[in-house]
Model the fold of this input.
Amino acid sequence: MHPVRPIIDTIQTFAAIPTAARLRTVKPQYERVTIPDGCSIRVYHRQLAQIPFEWHHHPEYELTLTMNSRGRRFVGDHIADYSGDDLVLVPPDMPHTWASTEPIDAGGPQVAIVVWFSGDWARRMADCCPEFASLRTLLRRAAPGLRFSPDAAALMRGQIGALLDESPRVRLGAVLQVLAGLSEAELEPLASPAAHAHALTRGMRQEHARRAQSGQATQTTQAAHKANIAPTVASGGSASEAERLNRVLDLLDRRFHEPLRIAELCEVASLSERSLHRYFVRHVGESVGRYLNRLRIGYATRQLTGTGWPIALIATKAGFPNLANFNRQFLSARGMTPSAYRRFFETYGHAPKEAGATPANLEIRPPSLERTRRRQTRAPA
Done:
């Protein structure tokens, strides 16, 4: 490599990063975070030579521990330098990113341990388990985004082995342990109240678009009114890509067991078939057909282990009217036939290990933002 090339790359990277004044005009990219089947949370183990500027948002909470890295951190309208072990909790729909200048140890990669979880899940844990009642306080305090003390970062660093364990149950236990500790840790609020209100408005708009398709838009409108927020995006042609896509995802989640025509999905999203396919692959990382098949197989898997229903009945309820086709699809997805899968569960008391539970998958990011970054990397300057 040419000796001045890294310097040129750094200059070009930071020339593209907006200042605080310009940041408000940059539209954040929507990232669709998917929680794996059989899991309550998602953990991502990121290792890079340089952390790029990727201004984005998503409806999940994000807890990120950045290590062996220094650069700038952007959360809402907050911009600050970071260095060393940087532990931050970002609330739903708050735009954010890290952008590194260099590793602290040039011999190793820059690392981020990322945990995504939904606010509904955390609140349910607080409601049903008094040991985790403090999670409610943590979520309330997280509205502007939070940076935690070095001691809190050390707490999460000490849990890395469990956070990256191949067992979803071990990972979940480590996340709960960390969150409970953070609810009592020293912290620093980051973004301003205005940035928090803007993020809340963005989240309410997307939720309104989703609920409009299921007859629940009135509830969202009332909630927005109480919060002095007007959800201005309806389920028409003015919706953003994310809102259009969420309508389709909501329909698929509710009616996966029914015969669905692509024309019906296009009508819900107010998109052409070609545009729907492009948006779906961009944000979800796979085609509509593959996503629908995963929903059906996931439902069938739960019924095989949770009920005594005949396999033919499970196939029909999952949306496979043809039993032979169901057997083929299940074998392709799970590595064994439905009957063999049920026998394994009855014999050993747990499901067979699958690719989704392996440590390697912890290094795979939800695909929407990765695909966008690859397109931007290939684009000419």
Residues 331 and 337 are 5 Å apart (CA to CA).
